[in-house]
Write a structure and sequence with these properties.
GO terms for molecular function: nucleotide binding; proline dehydrogenase activity. By secondary structure, the protein is an alpha/beta fold. Helices cover 50% and strands 14% of the residues. The protein is globular, with a radius of gyration of 18 Å. It starts with a helix and ends with a helix. The structure holds dihydroflavine-adenine dinucleotide.
Amino acid sequence: MGLAKDFFIYLSQNKVLNSGAKRYGLKLGAKSVVAGTNVEEMIESVKALNIQGISCTIDNLGEFVYEREEATKAKEQILNVIEAIHEHQVDAHISLKPTQLGLDIDYDFCFKNLKDIVEAANRYNIFVNVDMEDYGHLQPSFDLIDELSKSYNNIGTVIQAYFFRAEEDIEKYKNYRLRLVKGAYKESSEVAYQDKQLIDQNFVRLIEYHLLHGKFTSIATHDHNIINHVKQFVKDNNIPLDKFEFQMLYGFRKDMQVQLAKEGFNFCTYVPFGDDWYGYFMRRLAERPANLQLVGKQVFNK
Ligand code: FDA
C-alpha cells in the first residue's frame, strides 16, 4: 500500500508524463473523474449535479506552473468560469491552487492574479476557496489569504489534518469558511503525521472543533466511517444543517453523494475540468489504488 502510494505520488510529479498527458487528452480513467475539457462541458456537468440537489465547487485543473504566460492563461480561464457561473445561474463556487496562479514564479504576481479572481467573484457574490497544496506552499498560501481577506470576505481555504500545525491553523482561521481534509501530498515526518490512524483521529478532532467553534465547515472525505461519525456528532450537539456540508470529488462514490443530499445534508461536489488532469488523477490513485477500477470501467465502457 505504502509503495503504491509513493509510486503514484512520484508519477503525479513527473513533468514529462504530465505534459504528454495534456497532449493526449482525457485518456484512461480520467474521463470519469474529470468533468470535461472546456467550460461548456463542465457547466453541463454542474447543471446535472444541481438538479440532484448538489452544489459544486469548480476547479480549472492545473498546478505547479512556472511560466507567467501559463499562469495568466489560467487566471483568464477562471475568470471565464466565474462569468459562466453567473450567466447560467448555477449553484457553484470556485476552487483554485496558488501554484497554478504563479506562486512559484513570484509572490506578488500570484497575489495580483488571485486578487483579480476574488474581486471578479465578489461582484457576483461567488465564494473562492484556496486549495492547499504541499507543505512548501502552505505558509505563502496562508499569507495570500491573510492579505486578501483584509479587502474581501468571499474567500476561504483548506486545513489538512495530517499537518502537526493544523490545530493552530484551525484556531487562527476559525472565522473562515473552511474545507477540512486528511491531506493528499507526500509530506515528511518532521511536519506531518504518517500513520493513517493518527491522521484520521486528528481529522475528526478538527472537524468537531470547527463545527462547534467555526464559521462554516466543509467536511471533504469519501470515508463513510467519518461521515457517519459526523452525522451522529451534529445530531448530539444540535448543530444546524446550514453550518456545514459534505464534499466529495466528482465521480467518486456517486450514489453516496446523491444519498447524502437526499437525506437533507448540504452536499457539494468538487468538479475538476480542463486538460491538465494528470497530477490530479495520479494523486487520486495514490490515495486509493482501488481507484484504478475507474480506469478499468472506462476502458471497458468504450
Ligand atoms: P481515504 O482515502 O482515507 O479512505 C478511507 C476509507 O473510505 C477507505 O478505506 C474506504 O473504505 C473508503 N473510501 C474512500 N474512497 C472510496 C471510494 N472512492 N469508494 C469506496 N470507498 C471509498 N487534499 C489536499 O491536500 N488539499 C486540498 O485542497 C484538498 N481538497 C479536497 C477537496 C475535496 C472535495 C476532497 C473530497 C478531497 C480533497 N483533498 C485535498 C484530498 C484529501 O486530502 C484526501 O487525500 C482524499 O479525500 C482521500 O481521503 P478520504 O478522506 O477521502 O478517505
